[in-house]
Amino acid sequence: xxxxxxxxxxxxxxxxxxxxxxxxxxxxxxxxxxxxxxxxxxxxxxxxxxxxxxxxxxxxxxxxx
Length: 65
Fold this sequence. Notes:
By secondary structure, the chain is mainly α. It has helices spanning 2-6, 11-60. The protein is rod-shaped, with a radius of gyration of 27 Å. It holds the Pfam family CcmD.
């Protein structure tokens, strides 16, 4: 089993590369999820503004005879 982890003397480089890659992928996942959450919050805020503008426009619009 130790031969597998030592990988012919290159285990430190190989496992280190795996660790760096895993950390980078986790960081990208976290950044993507945060960005998605912020985009949803911004979308909800913009929809609320649009809805309030629509309701004000409907109240101000003159009624047709």
